[in-house]
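Q&A log
Question type: sequence-to-structure
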Amino acid sequence: MGDSKYFNKGKAHEIKAMLAAAQTSKKREKKTVAVLKRIIANVTMGNDMSILYPQVLQTLEVQSLEIKKMVLLFVVVYAKKNSELTEQVISLLHQVF
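Response status: OK
Response body:
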């Protein structure tokens, strides 16, 4: 089955709630990865997930290279739409990496 389960169209507010729940979970890293995969899958399918920009950036607190890569991909896609946050993201990424 693999990662195909993530390619279900999701609504941004539902995914936002899933991401918030993952951040408070005992299995934070594993659940955050699963939600980020769902977000990236929705972005790939052409669904607008830009509303999740602040929440996705907050996941950088988790020390996982897999999470950092997915966040960077998300930022690259939506940096133009959120230009005022882009400079903050760049400085944050310099601190993280």
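Response note: The CA atoms of residues 68 and 76 lie 12 Å apart.
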